[in-house]
Design goal:
With about 400 residues, the protein is of the alpha+beta class. The chain is about 30% helix and about 20% strand. It has twelve helices and 19 strands. A hairpin with a 2-residue loop joins strand 18 (about 380-385) and strand 19. Helix 8 (about 290-310) crosses helix 9 (about 315-330). The longest helix is centred in the C-terminal third of the chain and has 20 residues, at about 290-310. The radius of gyration is 22 Å and the shape is globular. It starts with a helix and ends with a helix.
Length: about 400
């Protein structure tokens, strides 16, 4: 789901977004499988989802299993879109760097080794492996795969945090590139999804803003929080999934340009863990593959938790911004989901309190980024007045295309 106000603040435009894709959640056997999908979308405030019965049609190029004769039913979600993922994530980092009195340990590249609460100053002290100490009245733990360890450090050092355990879930992806104009024209125009279960949304097939076709992710629980390797057997299975969706002919006109994997910070609980603890501590954990889409709503919710629990204890520019965002988002009682949050802010027009965030410089077009990436040759591009290392595989594959 797009968040137009926030994306504009990042300097992003519709050049960086495929705003008209939508998604199809396809049933395997019958429409009953889709009842939960429709119900959850309605709860989230998305009233535009449509149930397509057996007589609906999809793109003619798709594989036999995805013809209207083989799909018993599907839910069409028109508001789902495809974005350039690295630019959105870096937009948050650039925005954070522009704010005063807000410290990001992640932004400084420090591994946390100790957390203490100074009772005299009432400040949290977060010590990193490089010897630095970061101090603040309020800490927001958004440490992803290591959020449980960070919370445990705080609990041992004077906090009162509820415990949870991160269980990394590996997702592997296969990246294809069309080899002919016909293959490029036949790449999926919508996002193809499976009916989700309690563990995963299943394998998805989509076309990136760069024109690559991506198949994935898998969902395998692992123990190693650093293991981002890929497995040949798994990638072969994804290639088969691609042939099922796209058809053998379309697959023959695409080449595999690479693969990658990522670790999602799943926990021993299904839902997000977003809560305020005593002693000026907020935890935002267990945010898995929906994190990019959900991040605006999560940010608003964290701001509301901040205001409700700790807002009177901080006097700084950070407090002013949290106040504005908390009030300018959706009331917590109405924060039903990402879609509702984004739509409510869009309905506010220019009066949305996102207007109080600074405006970042416009982001170069995709073609400009691609030329810059190739010309530099160091894996970086220049955005917002400085060179940034491109870290997301989708972005690297896209910027490397001819």
């Amino acid at each position: 789901m797009l968040h137009p106000h926030l994306y504009r603040k990042f300097g992003l435009s519709f050049n960086h977004v495929n705003k008209s894709s939508g998604s199809l959640v396809c049933a395997k056997e019958n429409a009953k499988e889709l009842r939960g999908v429709i119900a959850e979308n309605k709860i989230a405030g998305d009233e535009e989802v449509v149930l397509l019965n057996t007589n609906f049609e999809v793109d003619a190029h798709l594989g036999d299993d995805f013809s209207h004769k083989k799909i018993p039913a599907a839910v069409y979600c028109p508001r789902e879109a495809i974005v350039e993922p690295w630019l959105v994530a870096m937009g948050y980092q650039a925005m954070l760097s522009s704010l005063k009195n807000v410290e990001s340990v992640h932004g400084r590249g420090g591994e946390v080794v100790a957390i203490t609460k100074n009772e005299e100053s009432n400040l949290w002290e977060v010590k990193t492996k490089d010897g630095e100490t970061h101090r603040g009245v309020v800490v927001v733990n958004a440490a992803g795969l290591f959020a449980d360890k960070i919370d445990a450090m705080a609990m041992r050092r004077g906090g009162n945090c509820d415990t949870f355990t991160v269980k990394p879930r590996k997702g592997q992806f296969l990246v294809l590139e069309p080899t002919t104009p016909e293959a490029a024209a036949g790449a999926p125009k919508v996002i193809f999804e499976q009916v989700p279960n309690s563990k995963t949304k299943g394998v998805i097939v989509w076309t990136t803003v760069w024109g690559n076709v991506v198949i994935g992710p898998t969902a395998d629980d692992v123990d190693d929080r650093y293991d981002v390797s890929t497995d040949a057997d798994v990638l072969s299975r994804l290639e088969g999934e691609g042939a099922r969706v796209l058809g053998a002919r379309s697959m023959s006109e695409m080449k595999v340009v690479g693969s990658y994997s990522g670790l999602r910070p799943a926990t021993d609980r299904r839902d997000y863990i977003i809560k305020a603890e005593v002693d000026n501590w907020i935890t935002a954990a267990s945010v898995r593959s929906t994190g990019l889409s959900a991040s605006p709503a999560i940010g608003e919710y964290v701001a509301e938790l901040y205001n409700a629990n700790f807002g009177q204890s901080v006097g700084s520019d950070a407090k002013r911004l949290f106040d504005l965002l908390g009030e300018g988002g959706v009331d917590e009682r109405k924060l039903r989901g990402i879609t509702a949050s984004a739509l409510s802010n869009r309905a506010l027009g220019d009066e949305s309190n996102y207007q109080y965030l600074p405006n970042l410089d416009p982001v170069p077009t995709l073609e400009e980024l691609k030329r810059d990436f190739k010309a530099r040759g160091d894996g970086k591009v220049t955005v917002w007045g400085q060179a940034w290392q491109v870290t997301h595989p989708i972005s690297i594959f896209g910027m490397s295309r001819k």
